[in-house]
Specification:
alpha/beta; 191 residues; 9 helices
Length: 191
Amino acid sequence: MIDALLQVAERDVPIGPELDATKRLILVTAHRRESFGLPLREAFVALRTLADRNAGVQVLYTVHLNPNVSGPAREILGGHPRVVLCEPLAYAPFVSAMKRSFLIITDSGGVQEEAPALGKPVLVLRDETERPEAVAEGVVKLVGTSAERILAEAQRLLDDPQAYAAMARGVSPYGDGHAAERIVAVLRDSL
């Protein structure tokens, strides 16, 4: 997976939505069923507050089409001058968005695996993850959907260069992008 990610990341694919290059981008994905209702609304309030408090930040949220997600997202985040809501992106533009981002806030398991390989800190809108290796490595942090916790952790990464650097190390416990090369070498030696 990391091999494929890094191969796609080498290309310069347009993201699609127009973004302000002078702002630090916070990329967001949130769609998990267990967050529907109040938890998701609280996370959206945190994102709006984060945009309100940080003029140098722009939020890009790829909004899931489920009305349990898109309705509250548009209600709470819609119309904010530094929040861009868009439909889910195809893989290559999404990888470009991850590369361009300063930090990523997500509930996606795949993003927890991929973003650290690109050197992007990940705040996870969940209380548990099936990817504990990334948490143990310190490149992913579970923050749940509490507005207070999301705000505190995101603001810390925006304000504290050392905290940011500790998470933005470009280290992935899921591979280094050279697995295919090693597999080919083993096959050549074996056959």
